[in-house]
Design brief:
This protein is mainly α. It is built from nine helices and no strands.
Length: 196
């Protein structure tokens, strides 16, 4: 197990002097200030979700764990680069995880595009957390079905298949600008369809 993973596993308790429910923005600000407990707190909040995303892209447990670890290391190093006006913390975190996973897909030259339903669940977790995660997943899948086919296809291939926008344009035989427009429109509609 890597040094970061050992550190995260060993420091998952938040000190009692800290508020129990800091916002994600506050936690990122604390991490930017060197608060390693903040990183553990963020990992407790998003580790399982991050792993699920990485696994869907990579289809390999060890590689998914590496992608999550790399992403949280990047969060530790660049938390001061987070900008609230550009994205929610969860979006920023999961974007970093997704990028790391795609980088690993390319590096490992793995086969892409397996069915989403075949991904195993991350182990451990409370029943309410698992129920909440299942509910969110169902909401996102239902929202994806509401999108026009071209938008859904672009988003699924990008986020679950690991393709870049340029690769999608080439694969689908459409201009890059069209892919960007489809993804932007699809993400905008998803934000409307899926409650926070």
């Amino acid at each position: 197990m890597s040094e970061l993973a050992v550190h995260l596993a060993g420091s998952s308790r938040v000190e009692e002097s800290r508020p129990a429910s800091r916002s994600d923005e506050d936690v990122l600000a604390a991490i930017a200030g060197g608060d390693d407990q903040g990183l553990a707190e963020l990992y407790d909040r998003y580790g399982r979700l991050a792993y699920g995303l990485a696994y869907r892209v990579l289809r390999d447990q060890a590689l998914a764990e590496d992608a999550v670890q790399d992403a949280f290391l990047a969060i530790w190093r660049s938390a001061d680069g987070y900008r609230r006006e550009r994205a929610k913390p969860s979006t920023w975190i999961l974007t970093l995880v997704h990028r790391r996973a795609v980088d690993l897909v390319r590096r490992e030259d793995r086969r892409r595009g397996d069915r989403l339903d075949e991904a195993p669940e991350a182990t451990a977790g409370s029943v309410p957390e698992e129920a909440d995660l299942r509910e969110k997943r169902t909401a996102v899948q239902a929202a994806l079905r509401e999108l026009p086919q071209d938008q859904r296809q672009a988003l699924e291939l990008a986020y679950y298949g690991g393709f870049t926008q340029s690769e999608l344009a080439e694969r689908l035989g459409v201009p890059l600008g069209t892919i960007k427009s489809r993804m932007f429109a699809g993400l905008t509609r998803l934000r409307e369809l899926v409650p926070e």
